[in-house]
């Protein structure tokens, strides 16, 4: 299949108008578009037969498809991608949408978790999609770490940060841990932790374990190594990925198998399997990115689209992301400025706090 630029070059002015009107009508209604409907909206007066011929050519190029025999046409994923890249007109942020997002700030400004939760709810409410907000890791220096046994297969790590923030995370320790090995593991980590953030500590611990393994009790070494997953914020009690508004997609209707795929998508997200994948989507530079259907493995099963943008701290470092998931017939022209504004707002608020 030719690339999108070559496909666009193959289309004359009439073909582009037919293509654009089919896509815009589909994004607005979700319904297939027929040739007779287009005859009433085209710039030039052309017959339904002429439009049918153009639509057949666009179908041959892989840009349109027919959901049913003798029905109208809808854009394919390739068609939607070409429309988004070359023909999409992104509007200005609507004043009412901006006001609803701004309203969430209020009393939550000093609590990042509550603020991001409110923003997630506002984003899903404004867009009628599902929102994803990836919260930043806590990057203050670590003051003290302690391991506490809860049961044979459950342990707690208590993290005390230099700014007074405390986090408790539950995890599954290697078998056979004793109070002695837990104390030794904590002493080892604390000897390295002073003045360092969790991100810095993770790499240093791995190097130190390798060079000092003979000096460290084997059980303690295993405990520290298993605990490195905690430095990636995968603890059960820490919510980095905030998912809100899933009911908006589940209430859209559609075939039962589509709803099952959407449920599976949200179950995966809420189990936090794909946090790293989600951040990678936004970690390739500033600005809003659009993923349509199977273009991204996270959403290929559910046939959904994702509009996502990173947000940055005062040092212009990407620390999180906000996004909206919806059906592939999202109103991209409206959603893009909403996501862009929200990401910039979150970045400013977090920068102001620090």
Tell me what you see in this structure.
One of its GO terms (molecular function) is DNA binding. Keywords: Repressor, Stress response, Transcription, Transcription regulation. Pfam families: HrcA (PF01628). InterPro entries: GAF-like_dom_sf, HrcA, HrcA_C, WH-like_DNA-bd_sf, WH_DNA-bd_sf, WHTH_transcript_rep_HrcA_IDD. The protein has 354 residues and is an alpha+beta fold. It has three domains: 83 residues, Arc Repressor Mutant, subunit A; 157 residues, Beta-Lactamase; 91 residues, Enolase-like, domain 1 (2-Layer Sandwich). The strands form three sheets. Strands 7-3-10-9-8 form a five-stranded antiparallel sheet, sandwiched between helices. A hairpin with a 4-residue loop joins strand 5 and strand 6. Helix 2 crosses helix 4 and helix 7 runs antiparallel to helix 14.
Helix content: 40-55%
- Helix tally equals 14
Number-wise, the strands total 10
Into which percentage range does the β-strand content fall?
15-25%
Terminal-residue CA separation = 49 Å
CATH class of the largest domain: Alpha Beta
By secondary-structure content and strand pairing, the structural class works out as alpha+beta
Q: What is the alpha-carbon Rg in Å?
A: 25 Å
The largest sheet is: 5 strands, antiparallel
CATH evolutionary superfamily of the largest domain: GAF domain
**What is the CATH third-level topology name of the largest domain?**
Beta-Lactamase
What overall geometry do the principal axes of the alpha carbons give?
elongated
List low-confidence stretches. Answer: 233-238
Q: What would you say the CATH architecture of the largest domain is? A: 2-Layer Sandwich
Helix and strand pattern: HHHHEEHHHEEEEHHHEHHHEEEH
